[in-house]
Amino acid sequence: DAISSLKNFMQNTRTFRAEFTQTVLDRNGRVVQNGGGTMQFERPGKFRWVYEKPYEQLIVGDGDRIWFYDHDLDQVTVRKLDVAIGSTPAALLAGSSDIEKSFDLSDLGLQGDTEWLEATPKARESTFEWVRLGFTRGGVLKAMELHDNFGQTTVLGFSRLEKNPRLAPESFKFSPPEGTDVISD
Amino acid sequence: CAALAPENNVVRTIVTQPVPEMVDAKAADFGLIGRVSVKGGKESFSGGVQWHHRERGDEILLLSPLGQTLAQIQRTPDGVFLTTSEGENYYAADVENLTEQVLGWRLPLMGLQYWVQSMSSPATAAAMDMNIDGQVMAIRQDGWTIDYLAYSARVPVETSKSGTALPRLLTLKRDGLQIKLVIDAWNAGNP
After folding, report:
1. Is A123 on the interface with B (CB under 8 A)?
2. Interchain contact, A88 vs B66, CB within 8 Å
3. E-only strand ranges, chain B
4. What confidence tens digit (pLDDT) does each residue in B105-164 have?
5. pLDDT at B189
């Protein structure tokens, strides 16, 4: 079932890389935004989330901090990893393998050819209500849905997923471009 | 879409006077999705914005860079309400004071409904710098300076009443506070 797939995924996948599509739906289920890009993870706490569409944006977790770089705004926001990651879905994928420390898991069973689970954050002040993860029957991560506290849902679909590829260390480092505003909390 | 940088020299400046009968008029309905960054206030902010504007009220969602809603601002005929993602509720008579109090920076909503369409508000006097193509380069109103850094190359089907190309990148400055707004889409996803 999905929960055993997730645990297997957390224990046996130290790094992975995939392409993703992202669709944001408002609380009435209407598509608000479409996008996509590529992502890489190295457990714990390192990830590189590159949005190519609808605009250029880069999110890098270097193990200690999380950097958000927005090309159009020409701005970098940097936050401590445990604060930012604690309540975000990236925590689920790139966090420490002991997932049940910060999420309650419940099995949603098979829908179509995807096995689903729901993870609800234990921390009260998290920015989302629940996350759902979809795996193939063979245990390959296929989709993730995030439902925030205002009913907005972000749907991510993963493809071309590589398990435990060799990833260059530089991909988890970030230095702000010359002259870019850096905002840190 | 290629960001069309307006021809940057200002050829004329128009000064507009308030139009009394329009004072409580509101800009026509629109919806916009974009990204906003704020610096120079008590707090900074960077993330997404979804804004549904109606004559009788506004709803604005402020999102984290990862897309989760952090705060919802609702302007209604009897005041403005702000709800945070932790479920705290705040109320004030106007948006600027409310966001200053809760978020640490002033959101000039009453002017912004016009400024995002490169128009000045009819409620107060304003100065508008135009370039040779008649595109608005800057507006000075209500103590704010709004600079238009890029217009969207393709004019969306439902352009604003004025039918002009719509801004894609603008900055709002006042007393050290700077708000930068990128507009990614218009009239998408009305409730």
Report:
1. no
2. yes
3. 3-4, 10-16, 30-39, 45-54, 57-63, 69-76, 79-84, 89-92, 126-131, 136-141, 144-152, 167-174, 177-186
4. 999 999 999 999 999 999 999 999 999 888 999 999 999 999 999 998 654 444 444 456
5. 41
Contact yes or no for A185/A79 (Cβ under 8 A): yes
Residue of B nearest to A146 (CA): B68
CB–CB contact B70 A127 (8 Å): yes
Q: Two tokens at B150? A: 């890029």
Shortest CA distance from B49: residue in chain A: A32
Within an 8 Å CB–CB cutoff, is residue A127 touching chain B? Answer: yes
| Listed residue (B180, B23, B186) closest to A33, CA to CA | B186
What is the value of pTM for the model shown?
0.86
Are the Cβ atoms of A32 and B33 closer than 8 angstroms? Answer: yes
In tens, the pLDDT along B23-80 reads 667 788 899 999 999 999 898 888 999 999 998 899 999 998 777 899 999 999 889 9
Residue recorded with tokens 């130290």: A14
Chain A residue with minimum CA distance to B67: A154
Q: What is the ipTM of this complex?
A: 0.82
